[in-house]
Amino acid sequence: MKITIVAGARPNFMKIAPITRAIKAAQEAGKRISYRLVYTGRQDDTSLDASLFSDLDMKQPDGYLGVIGHDHSEVAAAIMLAFEKELNNYPAQVVLVVDDLTATMSCSIVAKKRGLKVAHLIAGTRSFDMNMPREVNRTIVDAISDYLFTAGMVANRNLNQEGMIPEYIHYVGNILIDTVRYNRHRLLQPVWFSSMGLEKRSYLLLTLNRHDLLTKKKVLNALMQTLVEKAEGMPIIAPLHPYVQNAIKALEISAPNLHILPPQSYLHFGYLINHAKGIITDSGNIAEEATFLDVPCITLNSYAEHPETWRVGTNELVNEDPVAFASMLETMLYGEWKHTTLPDRWDGRTAERIVQTLIYEESKSAPKSQEMDNLQK
């Protein structure tokens, strides 16, 4: 079985790395399975820092589609054309896509039209807001996928309510936790940590990525002013991408305890998450990591991709409300924060379950001669 795994952005690799290790383990056990990793962006993409793949203990992509841009339609069209050529040159039986990017949707459509099996990792996630481009992407991908790999029972319920074929739905657990578990003891303290006078549990970690929030200057300003005021001098460590840095700096907030830094490597950033007093983010991935690591987390959004993070985890949703944010910050800094009850199947074996499912299901549809060969093997 040949699998093409598609990554559309840097965060996808955190979820793909465990699968590549699980495939390698299956190969070593004598299974006939291989993969080709394709990145839809360019090889010189600055978001793919030099240490990323060594930090994740995985190889670099085998191929790059070289597509960049911001217009959804143009990017989708370019990826579809490039992915057609990729599959012409490197045929596959299964195309595995991750999350809910334009790249995820585009490659899924190409694969399905070619009669290939589509496997969607982290299927069933819903915000129920079809004005969000990612909601459109994930809904389309789920509708055409042959393997719907879900992280929780809420995702299963969403897919069942939408009438998906039950045999296509596989509750495998949270793939991101595989990566966190694997790397927890490999995390590295940044070289600047001590020189800035930081101590464990004595700083707040701020991450922002959501373009929609960054364009709301008044809302963003109110949230940032609230954060600085409630922190009362506690260091706020903010590793931010350049476009986020520009949005924050444009607010002209004067706060000596706000330290805006460039993006950190995976192992350095993981260290910052693990030892923070609390985390303020708009990222679902970081809320999941915080839940696993039992670190208090406030999410500046109205929903979480994985509701487990706020139902049984350390996450709290405040949307973009400065009043609710202020209240949660006070609790985070001076009160008692809830602790994690680890969700089901956050056990580090999600990738193993995915690969086992693919091997088993694909063997059932293999030609008889191949089945006999497999049995003899």
Automatic annotation (TrEMBL):
It comes from the Bacteria. One of its GO terms (molecular function) is isomerase activity. Coiled coil: none annotated. InterPro entries: UDP_GlcNAc_Epimerase_2_dom, WecB-like. Residues 29-358 form the UDP-N-acetylglucosamine 2-epimerase domain. Keywords: Isomerase. Belongs to the UDP-N-acetylglucosamine 2-epimerase family. This is UDP-N-acetyl glucosamine 2-epimerase. It comes from Bacteroides oleiciplenus. The lineage of its organism: Bacteria, Pseudomonadati, Bacteroidota, Bacteroidia, Bacteroidales.
